[in-house]
Amino acid sequence: MEWISVQDEMPPECETDDVMKKIGIQTMSRKVLVTINATGQRMTKTAYTRNGEWVCEAMRVFPDAVITHWKPYPEPCNN
User: Fold this and answer.
1) Whether the Cβ atoms of residue 33 and residue 44 lie closer than 8 Å to each other
2) Could you report how far apart the first and last alpha carbons of the chain are, in Å?
């Protein structure tokens, strides 16, 4: 699958259960691969969306990083 620009489309989110909703998490996506621009470098990392906002561990280290593209994980090997 090709990379998808975050300006064109975000990962699909599903509604969460009542426990998650009680702590303010209404919707969440599955983890996806993302391309981020951080400190002038491009990197591939994993991330997900929560309530329409990106959550990416790398952004804790690089708070000014910007996610530009994403794509679903590939299917696992069948061998």
Assistant:
1) yes
2) 20
- Over residues 54-63, the pLDDT tens digits come to 999 998 898 8
12-40 pLDDT per residue, tens: 998 888 887 888 888 889 999 999 999 88
Buried b (16+ CB within 10 A) or exposed e, 50-60: beeebebebbe
DSSP E strand boundaries for the chain: 4-5, 13-15, 27-29, 32-38, 41-50, 53-55, 66-72
Handedness of CA 46, 65, 69, 24 (dihedral sign): positive
